[in-house]
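[step 3/7] fold_predict: job queued, chain A
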Amino acid sequence: MHLHEYQAKEWLKRYGVPITHQEVISSKEEIPAFLEKWEFYPAVVKVQVHAGGRGKAGGVKLCQNKEELREALEKLHGMKVSTHQTAGGFMVAHQLLVTKGVEIEKEFYFAAVLDRASATMMLIASSEGGMEIEEIAEKSPEKIVKVPIQMDGTVRGYHVIEVCKTLGLSFARGSEAPKLIRAVAKAFAESDASLLEINPLVLTKDEKLIALDAKMTIDANALFRQVDLADCYDPTQELESEVRARKADLAYVAMEGNIGCMVNGAGLAMATMDMIKHSGGEPANFLDVGGSADVEKVTEGFKIILSDPNVRGVLVNIFGGIMNCETIAKGIIQATKEIDLHVPMVIRLEGTNVDVGRQLLKESNLPFAVAKSLSEAAEKISEAIT
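[step 4/7] structure written:
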């Protein structure tokens, strides 16, 4: 789950990471009252969307006075933001962040990530801030340092010194840099985050370190124990289909293909999408109904799949271990009765109660094609939509 910039900064602030004064505008009606009380100039206005590249898209404005601030707020609120991370679409800025401007002496890149190669939480730092880390790695790899975060969220002293030296900052006792490094590591470890990026981390003219921007992604599987962070969820930043899936407790990710997929089990879902690609098709989604889905959940899954106007066919691939093939069959039948099944569907069932499930589908007299293997199912659905 992604956090907005202002939410990530507030989380960092809890751990003692310095941020600039900030306020959030959630509606245009709030603008007049906000302008009367805001007193920090220059001010920076940023659209709050779950996508990078906001500045290049025109979503960040520097304002020197009240009139410029008014103009920026009225222009940016409700802006449709299209960046390299919106996959050709756009996100609507329902919230704006206004921050106090600072005089910058130097910019740094600083982040905490889960490093899958070493199975370790890791701090990444570079003296080249304001750039994407991939760009820094390509142009100036020698300016990047990586050090591990311990399981309790601490960082060893010599690693703190190594980061400070790379950034050219003081590591003397009581200086700001070591405190900030340790604070970011702790904030990352205790949030169940997969990414906590500060870009840029800046050194101001009066030698203060400030997190000028922040990006944070939380492991959705850990939200049950991250109550405060779970409240940061913003459904306006997701596709309607993904919001519906979240409410139905379905693992769903929209894609750009035209063959809808309903599968039980993440691994089987990935294999199903691979087989569709191998057969010449393009998957329209990842949808794992899980091992304990009931008829209602399966029905909602079908409604979500078929609500995608790009879907020209549907492939159902169920291996009944915990999941019961009879339940899936009933869900398919119920869903097709509630909505207009205007596309071909191929079904492959195996496992628990498979004979009962197949019989229910046969007796329904609905227009399904049945396959006995995954490869056969993928070939049939790919042929059906060509």
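[step 5/7] annotate
The radius of gyration is 25 Å.
The chain has three domains: 1-20+103-237, 21-101, 239-384.
exit 0
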